[in-house]
Write the structure tokens for this entry.
Amino acid sequence: MTTDLTTDLTADPATTQELVGIITGGWRAQAVHAAAAFGLPDHIEAGLTTDGELAAASGVPEQGIHRLMRLLVAMQVFEKDPSSGYRGTALSRALLDRPGTMRDMCLLYGAEFYTAWGRAADCLRTLTAGFELVHGEPLYPYLDGHPDLADRFQRTMKAGNLFFDHVPGIFDFTGGKTVVDCGGGNGHLLSVILGAVPDARGKLVDRDHVIPIARAHLAETVGTDRVELFGGDMFRAVPEGGDVYVFCRVLAGWSDDDAVAAFTHCRHAMSGPSARLLILDRLVVDSESTVLPALWDLHLLMTTGGGHRSVGRLRSLLDRAGWDIERTAELPMENTALIAAPRAGGTTDR
């Protein structure tokens, strides 16, 4: 006896609607991406509230604007008043072309990363990053050769760092400690720590092309008198003399052996046995996982070929490099801090 799946689904409209919502999620994301690319949130914020005004400002045909805005109003990205036209919402204001918004994330995720996800089936079959399948080379070398995209990537990372303000509350950085931010990107986390702890000093290491971005951000926020910047590869060497070595959202794209190498460099370069190592990241669990860590784990496979790790797996890698997890702390947006102490007996990795 065969089952008529069409009849079954039709008998449950709620299931059908929920599944259609999931299947068409990419369409919704592309509609929001188009709005950001056309600058519609900024135009509406500036008082352009009709289809004609938005079309003239964006260079998009009025019919295209009308049909796009109809969907975006239904999605509550914008509102529409019959008498006064379109209005912004909290969602649209989060896409304004201003520092600290989600606009760069929307543009990156709706273009380069969207095409990477378009190769999801091939990526999962081959365990080769979808980004590499599309662009012919891995993400980070590609960024090295495309500075405009690299800048957007760094701004996107900053937009996703909503938990940074909570980091000074989960670890004591006071007492004149030197904080070494490994793979510190644009210096956002280091600036937050130094801003919260006036007697702390900082060192940041990242790829050469990132250092000018970090220098500019640190100069604007906390000044550079307490900061040293190092261009290089944290998997080959890290700055010496640190009291705290921090890895924030930088390990997921790299192999276990690379992570162990970086942890080992920190152990050899640290100021003494009181030094600590902090890992700030999303962690995965295989039982009763929530959506966000599982989704971002798969996103990492699509973009870098990497993935998030579990507490157990990180404990094993730290053990190989001579560190023991001392405690953990929860951070917003389902992020976790692992605080590790150096083991008196040294490393077990060979």
Summary: The chain has a mean pLDDT of 92. The two ends are 60 Å apart (CA to CA). Residues 25-38 form the longest helix (14 residues).
